[in-house]
Amino acid sequence: MAGFSGLKLPTLVAKPSPWSPSAGVVAAAVPISNAQTRERLRMKQLFQEARERCRNDPMDGVPFTLDEFHAALDQYDFGFPVGSKIKGAVFMTDAKGAHVDIFAKSSAYLPLHEACLHKIKNVAEAGIQPGLQEEFIVVGENVREDCLILSLRSIQCDLAWERCRQLQFEDVAIKGKVIGGTKGGVVVTVEGLRGFVPFSQIAMKSSAEELMNKELLLKFMEVDQEQSKLVLSNCKAMASSQVQHGIGTVVTGTVQSVMPYGAFIDIGGISGLLHVSQISHDRVSNISEILQPGDTLKVMVLSHDRERNRLSLSTKKLEPTPGDMIRNPKLVFQKADEIAQSFRQRIALAETMALEDMQRYQTEKGSGGISSEGVQDSLTLH
């Protein structure tokens, strides 16, 4: 060992084992420098404090009491009496109607029968779905459910009456569907409302059963919303429409009476004469063998006497071949519109040629021209 006495040996330092107790003490002494970790610890402490406040004193820091809060709700919860209009938004629908938010303490309900003026099976048929914002009328209250009962039907009904009043004022003809009958007339629907048409105001003499589900051209005679009275006339509507028909127009009429010289035809309230000479190209010896009161037939307008409000009519002009009105009147009625169109074309051509001839004649004579109305008046239909 004496040989190594002059050597300087390195100092050996023992390292602590990671499993030794001293290692754990050193790790715990490391300071936290992660900002995210500090924020997480701060939020945890805030939540713990809020939880303790909610558990021990929930109203701590609130500037009003719970009673004051309910009193404020009652103060601003305005009442909605029956008949008042309110705005709301549909937020849910079901098989019986729709739930409506009216921006109050409780919601309101729109029943199916109050959702539309027309009969529907579900509210979707009336375009009512979540998100729809509309104005409603309060029609009642469901005390048990603590909610108001709303209606769109009432608003639509008022609008329908207003439309009927306007249509009456403008003397406009509309179509109505027959849905029922009484001893005195038929019940129709117009603008979603029920109206009454007396039999005396129906141009075609038919029973209520024969008219069921058919559409009639109508004009308003009486519109009284307060009395729920809506009276209409088919004769008035037909009369005004027939007045517009010119020469060569085909119209439908009903035989009123038969005379030796012809038959009187009712054309929507206007009386027309079908002279015996205008029934057929073949000779008619007995009109009663061809026409009977109550028969419905198609006729052509030959002329219109506006002063007497009387039409001159013809079935002769509608015969595909001479004598068809006697042998096969059904064929005449089937071909009536087609034959009449051809007839009107011939009349228009004749008018044009006559006008040209007369203008040429007047030019040669050095006189003024002549109007097309004068030419039409100079043409007669036989």
Automatic annotation (TrEMBL):
The keyword Repeat applies. One of its GO terms (biological process) is translation. Residues 361-382 are annotated as: Disordered. PROSITE patterns: S1. Signal peptide: none annotated. The keyword Secreted does not apply. Keywords: Repeat, Ribonucleoprotein, Ribosomal protein, RNA-binding. This is S1 motif domain-containing protein. GO terms for cellular component: chloroplast stroma; ribonucleoprotein complex; ribosome. GO terms for molecular function: mRNA binding; structural constituent of ribosome. SMART domains: S1 (SM00316). Residues 373-382 have a biased composition (Polar residues). Belongs to the bacterial ribosomal protein bS1 family. Residues 83-153, 171-235, 248-316 form the S1 motif domain.
